[in-house]
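Extended Data, record Peptidase M16
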Amino acid sequence: MDGPVTTEVDGIPTLLAPTSGGGPVVAGLFFRVGAADETLATAGLTHLVEHLALHRHGVSDLHYNGSTAATHTHFVVSGTAEEVVAYLNGVCASLRDLPVERLATEREILRTEQAGRSRGPNHQLPLWRYGARGYGLASYPEYGTLHLTADAVRAWAATWFTRDNAVLWIASGTVPEGLDLTLPAGRRQPLPEPTSALPVTPAYLTGGSGGVVLDGIVRRSTAAVLFAEVLSRALFTDLRQKGGYSYTADCGYQPRDRDHATLTAFADALPQKQDAVVGGFIDVLARLRAGTIDQAELDSARAKTLKQYEGPDTGAAALPSYALNLLTGHPNLTPDEHRAELDAVTVEDLREVAGELYDSALIQVPGRSVDWAGFTAAPQWSAPVTDPAGTVHRSRASDAVSLAVGPEAVTLVTPSGQITVRYDACAAMRVFPDGARHLIGFDAFVVEVEPTLYAKLTPARMAVIDAAVPAAAVVPMPERDPDEIPQPAARRGGLKGRALGALRSLRPGRG
């Protein structure tokens, strides 16, 4: 069995694979740009371009969609050949001349979409692993939708939505007539380089929804795909079927870049079952890492994966993954080559993947340490500064807390530790009309500079911050309701490092 046919449409690499029967034509246009290519201050820029590109299609019976992921944007359509041609031509026409008169409306739509979007159990892990940039931006709001201009949106589209940064796939034996996918020339954009906010792994953090969630970075491989299935089944068997501790216990495999993938495992828990779920979860991981894997577990995972080749249109079904691999530079396997790799995977290969997962793991557990399992606590505080430079402003809520505003950084000092955000390492500064400034560092630590909470924090001292933070990091925020402006609480003695909202008036942490 061969892979797809490769051709070209208007300079865009194109993959074709026929389908059996007379069903609809399905096609997709990928661009190598996503949320991880943005900055925290411009987050949502790619999503805005996607929405603007689709606006002219309006209300239609045609089945179409657009999506923005970490490293790619995808426009997909299903219909007759004529409808597919009209859709793809319309997308490219809009990308050449974005309807920026719709910008204000689309920004509101995106903010509404964001407010109603459910956040998965692993939504905090990216910022703890990567910080407030690159792949870590998946944890953050789309701040760019608050302030991005028409010029910024046009420039982004002209740089990233080009024919040299795209791949087209069509579930058909031929290219439909009438396609006009003319786009400006550009270049194939490299994938974002991973950053790190973790000094060591495996690491852990506490909190979350009460369940256990873990992710790790492994090499992309057929063995890793099978391992994800084995881990998923082992968690389900031990935590749900045998222990009755969890309802949902699962593991997924998601390519991150050309050479690496993210494995994410999750198990939910009721409050009274949390200790059992944490222990059982880590026991399963330890068993697989030790190589205690039955051949039957591997064989079952392999059999499930091979079922993808049982349908009549397996080549067409694989087109999106083929196209995405072509876009990101990952080698494509023919179906026969993939089957051969599946057959060659051994239990020892799975043990190696389990070791990679453990060595790179970040686990979030409900309110308890797991250092007994070899995990190190993720940093709760910045590296201490003996005598933070600048003026010192005492907290109105606690004599033990102060804020230093210096020429190079702001530092929050508490009895438990310090948080520092350097101006030259500021991913975004949220600027509020009432005078507050919230600085988010590349390492994802946050210092909230609230004039209501600190003594002598005058406009002149705030001007020091404004002058030092790069203009590209500034995010103008809407006016806050008076009830949202923090006021000093009853005076307190100390603070827990990862408050993350626990104290409204004094809130260090990441976020």
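Summary. The longest strand covers residues 212-219.
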